[in-house]
């Protein structure tokens, strides 16, 4: 049976229903907010930062209440090193119809447990191709939320690129700006 996770693993402990604990943790995580930044900046500095953010085009992808458009942008459009974007290409060989056990299935899973098809008709096929670099897709990077950015140390598509005037790890982003 193919499962929702690309490695086929969904952790559930005996005595619970299938995926019950994962759903509970996800619900709890959705209630969390990062603490406010330690550093306070002046209104003038904030205005300058916003001007740069808008002028550089960041607002095209990092907008709205969650500061993301929840889209995957092609690696060649982002303009960063593309090897990570193609890391999941081989999954194309093992992808099948997504199915899960019914939510009321006890764990351990009994023989003959009901299996449900996961509806995918509403999904954007191009976004899936970009996410996994399937077909002739260059692969891509999901636009992350900028909420809590002050608490992170690296930036860009996957946190793998450090930026700023005093970069001590990672590498500087290439000057090519992306235009999704």
Provide a descriptive summary of the structure in words.
With 180 residues, the chain is of the alpha+beta class. It has four helices and four strands; from the N terminus they run ααβαββαβ. The protein has helices spanning 20-29, 43-55, 75-78, 125-132, and strands at 72-74, 99-101, 115-117, 140-142. A two-stranded antiparallel sheet has the order 1-4. Strands 2-3 form a two-stranded antiparallel ribbon. It is flat. Mean pLDDT is 82; it is low at 167-180.
Key traits:
alpha+beta; two-stranded antiparallel ribbon; 180 residues
What class, by secondary structure content?
Answer: alpha+beta
Largest sheet: 2 strands, antiparallel
Poorly predicted sequence stretches spanning 5 or more consecutive residues:
167-180
One letter per element, helices H and strands E, the order comes to: HHEHEEHE
In spatial order, strands of the major sheet run 1-4
Count of discrete alpha- or pi-helical segments spanning 4 or more residues: 4
Oligomer: single chain
Topology:
Layout: H1 20-29, H2 43-55, E1 72-74, H3 75-78, E2 99-101, E3 115-117, H4 125-132, E4 140-142
Antiparallel strand pairs: 1-4, 2-3
In short:
By secondary structure, this protein is of the alpha+beta class. It is 19% helix and 7% strand. The strands form two sheets. The protein has a two-stranded antiparallel ribbon with strand order 1-4. Strands 2-3 form a two-stranded antiparallel sheet.
């Amino acid at each position: 049976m193919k499962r929702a996770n690309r490695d086929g693993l969904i952790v559930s402990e005996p005595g619970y229903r299938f995926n019950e604990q994962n759903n509970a943790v996800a619900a709890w995580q959705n209630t969390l907010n990062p603490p406010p930044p330690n550093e306070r900046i002046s209104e003038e500095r904030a205005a300058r930062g916003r001007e740069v953010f808008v002028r550089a085009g960041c607002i095209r992808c990092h907008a709205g209440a969650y500061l993301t458009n929840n889209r995957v942008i092609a690696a060649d459009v982002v303009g960063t090193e593309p090897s990570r974007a193609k890391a999941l290409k081989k999954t194309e060989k093992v992808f099948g119809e997504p199915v899960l056990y019914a939510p009321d299935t006890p764990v351990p899973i009994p023989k003959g447990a009901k299996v449900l098809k996961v509806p995918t008709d509403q999904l954007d096929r191009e976004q899936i191709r970009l996410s996994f670099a399937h077909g002739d897709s260059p692969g891509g990077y999901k636009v992350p939320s900028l909420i809590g950015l002050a608490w992170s140390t690296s930036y860009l598509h996957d946190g793998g690129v450090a930026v700023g005037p005093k970069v001590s790890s990672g590498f500087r982003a290439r000057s090519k700006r992306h235009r999704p």
